[in-house]
Structure formats: C-alpha cells, structure tokens
Design goal:
By secondary structure, the chain is mostly helical. The protein has one domain. It is built from three helices and no strands. Helix 1 packs parallel to helix 3 and helix 2 crosses helix 3. The relative contact order is 0.17.
Length: 73
C-alpha cells in the first residue's frame, strides 16, 4: 500500500483565528452550533483542507460552504 505524507503547514495563533472565523461564519449561515455533530464534522474537514495545503481563507470558506471533502476533490 502506498502512503503519501504531505507537508503540513504550521498551525499558528493567526491560523486558529482564521479557521474559527470560517467555522463560525459557516455555523451562522447553516444554523448549527460549533460543538454540534455538524459543526465538528465541518471543523474536521476544514482542518484537513488546511493540512492538505489550502491556506487561503476565501478558498477554505468556499470548500466548506460547498461541502467538498478531501476524498471528493
């Protein structure tokens, strides 16, 4: 089985602020709480995209808004 290790961007305090803002905006738009199962699923997907290398706030927000998962891309 092949395994690919992608270089992961460091998670900084500024990164956390951005990721929280994206998640908060998504939750507000969808009517979910961040600590709901939907919020947790979306937060996980958001972190996966960031670790995959997507660091642009607008692109991350679009991926989350359009509910695109790493396996879907």
């Amino acid at each position: 089985m092949w395994k690919t290790d992608w270089p992961k961007a460091a998670v900084t305090a500024d990164t956390i602020v951005v990721l929280r803002r994206i998640l908060r905006d998504w939750c507000d738009e969808k009517g979910h709480l961040a600590d709901s199962s939907e919020g947790g699923r979306t937060a996980k997907s958001l972190i996966e995209w960031y670790e995959f290398g997507v660091t642009d706030e607008c692109e991350l927000a679009r991926l989350i808004r359009d509910d695109i998962k790493i396996g879907d891309a």
